[in-house]
Amino acid sequence: MPEMRTRPPLDELRRIYAETETIAVVGASPDTTKRAQVVPAYLQDQGYRIIPVNPGRDEIFGEKAYPSLLDIPGQVDVVEVFRPAEETPAIAANAVEIGAKVLWLQLGIISEEAATIAAEGGLTVVMDHCMGAMHAKLGLGPGPDH
What we know:
Layout: H1 10-19, E1 22-26, H2 35-45, E2 49-53, E3 59-60, E4 63-64, E5 78-81, H3 88-97, E6 102-105, H4 112-120, E7 124-126, H5 131-137
Parallel strand pairs: 1-2, 1-5, 5-6, 6-7
Antiparallel strand pairs: 3-4
């Protein structure tokens, strides 16, 4: 089996950041000790609109939280996922349904099934990379651990 590609080339990643306004964060957390809080909070500080997706919360990052991607009104550019890999195929299907442009699975999350669903739906796929750390690696900001 060929090695799964986990991210697009750096120039395409730069384009993703440049063209992104809204990031829906599936699994967003209010817990400041969790990456699902630290990374989206950093991206919000960098000027992106963060829409938390967490059925157990009404608000995170000062934004209304939604129970699922399908409940979000308006356009979502990137779906950033902080959930276990086994949950990602359904999340990928929802990302396609809402017309997102990118499915981004956080560091440590890999799902060939989710990647296939998203890619077949026209989305760019990034897996097993931190969206905050990649932002810093590209020289776009200080990074979430600054």
